[in-house]
């Protein structure tokens, strides 16, 4: 059946086997199966034994701590269910001739941000109509849509927030399929080609892709120095959880970076209203009607992650409140039309937002013990530790193993600390009929210095830290707690204090960033032109719409505010721009000091210049591919195998330094950049190079021109919104002594 045929499936519950039998999934290793089996055995031994340790004189306290432990075990069971099988999908080719509308809703986002998204959306390869849906009813947005050739639609009343905006657009649009992008999410050119083919299955209602983010310095991202390890707080959800849900036909629509069948949406009355998370409620209604969903786990669009704690927590609060609304209004565990795996998947989503109560118990329990001398246990003896330590150690090990390298327990615990109070507040959304839709601020230059959003974390730090000297003083005067209990609770309180302190330190570090634009670590070859001086080849990096850094053989002829001409070599063009010198960065010792780099701001002559650069930078993962960034870390079993010598050593994690190069291949020159200062030579060319053919390279460094000869094998294509770049490993055929001109 073709994708243009879209009859609604039978309203009965879809049979789980008919869905999963067709899907390939990532197998779980025998070692992981064994680890999970051991975990279950230890968990049952510990949790089954724990009621025998209750303190009868503090039964409420004992039951509260035990309930928090049981809740954690229940969440772990749901986690194991969702991560046991992860789908492996290869997209079918998109059939020609489908009619597609692309919706970009906005209300108060900056014009430049929306412009970038519209530029990327309008340039998607598959024929479509792009709509700007303006709930802010702003003249500048109407003008922007007209300039870029997009349809413009505004409302006089903003009823039902984002869901109402989308439903209003459905009245006017006529496409068979609708793609949704938030105002900050710039899609790749091939987004529609990579998603529309799934609709050949007439049961598919929507295809969801990951929501990735380009600003790697956001509140959600962690990067160790200048290394290749870059992790995002949502990595585990997008790389693992959604794939696990997908196996059970339970991946849910996330509001952006998705395509939906129009007839499926019409069949449930449009995008769900009455919730601050319209996407989750819409997904549930579609699944209850028997529709299928697809999660395509390839990053195809890139947006702005919350830049500070306030916006991050505001977003999590809304998500949690929406989950509570869905639980109350739609039902989850006993919802008609859902299979049991779907019910468990939605239950896991909802229950995750109750995690704040468990964390509150664990954050306060040691302080209560230390301040009052009241224990939730009769005693802490060797038997307790022999049961307690293996259980919690295995809990962390199983989580990381099932996370396939994306579930980094220590970092996730920091974010658990950050959001526990937001999740506490969100849980009360179950009892509230109406909630206000809070839009996340996408501005990167927002004020992040305030500690107000982290007052609960400051309280955890203060209460636990003060409990330690208080308990020691009480113990010195008149011992109440046994020494083992005193020591254990002091350690627990210090762990809580340390976790809060690490979070506050991270917050302080992020607060120092005040740039209005994210600077992409995308090195490009460039040529610096200064009046009266020879042209200097170099590399530009840290690029944004406002400026860049230039590295090369600069000399001492530059001064601040000096105007330069810079030729930026890009895959499809040479962008000749004017720039002003803003800073000079020096290297070397005092007696041999030199200008290592210059910081520049663009002096744009026209809008087209800006758009050419914006189109290249946004809407791709080029910064990941060029720098070889990696979210994954070895799992516990992989680390064990490496320790036993069964796996090779890890590759170095340093990001290479780059120099511009001119490559002579088959008689034709090609611009490229080449890594320097490392044994392995990475070469990124702006056009494809012939595999196996002899290459002559001239690499331009601060010391001069280095001549190299070599060959390359078939390389890796790095997609960009214009034309691809090409990554190779240069194999030295003949080494020549570096010569300097």
Automatic annotation (TrEMBL):
Biased composition, class Basic and acidic residues, residue ranges: 10-23
Top enzyme class: transferase
Protein name: cellulose synthase (UDP-forming)
Domain Glycosyltransferase 2-like: 102-267
Subcellular location, record wording: Cell inner membrane
Organism: Candidatus Desulfobacillus denitrificans
Domain PilZ as annotated: residue spans: 514-618
Single Gene Ontology MF annotation: cyclic-di-GMP binding
Record's keyword terms, sorted: Cell inner membrane, Cell membrane, Cellulose biosynthesis, Glycosyltransferase, Membrane, Transferase, Transmembrane, Transmembrane helix
Cellular component GO terms, alphabetical: plasma membrane
Annotated GO biological process: cellulose biosynthetic process; UDP-alpha-D-glucose metabolic process
């Amino acid at each position: 059946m073709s994708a243009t045929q879209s009859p609604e499936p039978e309203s009965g519950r879809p049979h789980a086997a008919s869905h999963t039998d067709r899907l390939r999934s990532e197998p779980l290793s025998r070692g992981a199966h064994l680890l999970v089996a051991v975990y279950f055995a230890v968990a049952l031994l510990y949790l089954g034994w724990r009621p025998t340790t209750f303190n009868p004189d503090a039964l409420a306290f004992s039951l509260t701590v035990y309930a928090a432990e049981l809740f954690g075990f229940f969440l772990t069971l749901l986690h194991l269910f969702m991560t046991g099988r992860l789908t492996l999908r290869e997209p079918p080719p998109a059939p020609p001739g489908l009619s597609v509308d692309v919706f970009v809703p906005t209300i108060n986002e900056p014009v430049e941000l929306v412009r970038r998204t519209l530029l990327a959306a309008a340039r998607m390869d598959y024929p479509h109509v792009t709509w700007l849906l303006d709930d802010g009813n702003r003249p500048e947005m109407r003008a922007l849509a007209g300039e870029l050739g997009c349809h413009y639609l505004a409302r006089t009343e903003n009823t039902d927030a984002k869901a109402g905006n989308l439903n209003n657009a459905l009245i006017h649009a006529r496409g068979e399929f609708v793609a949704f992008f938030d105002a900050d999410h710039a899609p790749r050119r091939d987004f529609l080609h990579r998603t529309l083919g799934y609709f050949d299955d007439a049961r598919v209602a929507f295809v969801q892709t990951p929501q990735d983010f380009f600003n790697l310095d956001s509140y959600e991202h962690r990067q160790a120095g200048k290394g290749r390890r870059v992790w995002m707080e949502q990595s585990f959800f997008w790389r693992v959880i959604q794939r696990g849900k997908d196996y059970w036909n339970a991946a849910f629509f996330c509001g952006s970076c998705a395509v939906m069948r129009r007839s499926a949406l019409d069949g449930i009355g449009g995008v769900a209203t009455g919730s601050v998370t319209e996407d989750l409620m819409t997904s549930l209604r579609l699944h209850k009607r028997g529709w299928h969903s697809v999660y395509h786990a390839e990053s195809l669009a890139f947006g702005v992650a919350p830049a500070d704690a306030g916006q991050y927590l505001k977003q999590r609060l809304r998500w949690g409140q929406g989950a509570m609304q869905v639980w109350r209004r739609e039902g989850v565990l006993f919802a008609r039309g859902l299979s049991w795996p779907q019910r468990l998947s939605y239950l896991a989503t909802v229950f995750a937002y109750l995690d704040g109560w468990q964390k509150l118990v664990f954050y306060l329990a040691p302080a209560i013990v230390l301040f009052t001398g009241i224990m939730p246990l009769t005693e802490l003896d060797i038997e307790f530790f022999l049961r307690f330590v293996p259980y919690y150690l295995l809990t962390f090990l199983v989580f990381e193993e099932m996370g396939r390298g994306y579930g980094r327990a220590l970092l996730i615990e920091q974010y658990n600390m950050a959001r526990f109070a937001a999740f506490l507040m969100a849980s009360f959304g179950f009892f509230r009929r109406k909630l206000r839709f809070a839009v996340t601020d996408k501005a990167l230059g927002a004020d992040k210095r305030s500690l107000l959003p982290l007052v609960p974390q400051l309280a955890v730090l203060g209460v636990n830290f003060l409990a330690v000297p208080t308990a020691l003083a009480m113990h010195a005067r008149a011992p109440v707690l046994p020494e083992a209990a005193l020591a254990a609770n002091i350690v627990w309180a210090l762990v809580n204090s340390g976790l809060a302190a690490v979070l506050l330190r991270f917050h302080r570090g992020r607060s120092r960033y005040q740039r209005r634009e994210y600077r992409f670590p995308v090195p490009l070859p460039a040529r610096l032109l200064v009046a009266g001086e020879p042209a200097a080849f170099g590399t530009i990096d840290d690029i944004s719409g406002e400026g860049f850094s230039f590295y090369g053989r600069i000399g001492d002829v530059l001064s601040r505010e000096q105007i330069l001409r810079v030729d930026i070599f890009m895959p499809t063009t040479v962008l000749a721009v004017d720039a002003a010198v803003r800073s000079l960065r020096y290297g070397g010792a005092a007696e041999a000091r030199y200008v290592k780099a210059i910081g520049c701001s663009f002096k744009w002559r026209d809008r087209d210049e800006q758009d050419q650069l914006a189109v290249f930078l946004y809407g791709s993962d080029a910064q990941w591919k060029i720098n070889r960034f990696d979210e994954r870390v070895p799992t516990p079993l992989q680390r064990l195998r490496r320790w036993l010598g069964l796996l090779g050593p890890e590759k170095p994690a340093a990001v290479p330094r780059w120099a511009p190069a001119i490559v002579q291949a088959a008689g034709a020159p090609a611009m490229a950049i080449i890594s320097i200062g490392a044994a392995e030579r990475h070469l990124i060319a702006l056009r494809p190079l012939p595999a196996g053919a002899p290459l002559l390279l001239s690499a331009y460094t601060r010391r001069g021109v280095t001549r190299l000869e070599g060959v390359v094998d078939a390389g890796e294509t790095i997609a960009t919104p214009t034309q691809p770049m090409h990554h190779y490993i240069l194999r030295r055929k003949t080494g020549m002594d570096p010569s300097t001109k």
